[in-house]
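In this section we walk through a basic example: taking a raw amino acid sequence and producing a predicted 3D structure, encoded as discrete structure tokens. The instruction is simple. Fold the sequence below.
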Amino acid sequence: MTMHSTGLSSIPPLLFLLFSFCPLNASAAANTSAMNCGALSGRKSPGGGPAVTILVPNASRKTVHLFWLDSKGEKKSYGTLTPGAARSISSYAGHVWMTADHAGRCVSAFVVTNPPPELDASWKIVEDDGIQFKAYGVVSDEAINRARVIVNQMLINLPEVRSRMKARQFKVEIIGKAQLLTELPDYAGLRGKKTRDGRDYDTGTRGLGGPGLCSVGEENLLCLAKQPYPTEDIMVHEFSHSIKSNLDPGLAQAIDEAYRYKNLR
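The resulting token sequence is shown next.
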């Protein structure tokens, strides 16, 4: 199954504008608690603690520098984050991180929180006109309903695409906000692997779109502050890939050719 990973990658200008229904938020890292920059004085990271993977996005319009405050409170550089970028980092509960501008001024600060509780192993499954929407029990009904609304809006004038998807028993799976993509059984085979642009499928992707399966992060559907893609609607993005994979082959080829021609100009 051909799948496309979410990032800032380009796709052919299909039938939809990819825009976000979410407001632009300041940088906020998943599995962390925000701190006031003024509270950093004297703060340092403790030794040990439960291991936690944090996802640090840069939702600002400027490049920021990422730092970890070690056990002495000294800043250790973890490179930079360009506007719209996000980075997955292995850390420990209680550790302190910050981002700063080019002059070293604090932009944001956060402390790593304890890992989330174990996921509810039960599933929520909703059928809507031949398409299945599926999520772990911890995922909110609101997120599932929003995914349904987007899918139905995007297919309203594409009955032939819906028919092909029905024949394939198409599924939309919601990744819980405290969950990794590869924790979903249908994506377990991607565990430990990387995307074409070098990101981990485990921690670096929040959605995929293919002919018979599409996924999206709960945090993006709900427009939560703590997410790596606050200015992009991932459901629209990934489901556009799925629609293109279910178009008439001649039309899909024409879209590819038009896209290639545009990029040559």
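Looking at the output, two observations stand out. Residues 1-21, 23-27 have pLDDT under 50 and may be disordered. The longest strand covers residues 51-57. In the next section we compare this with other chains.
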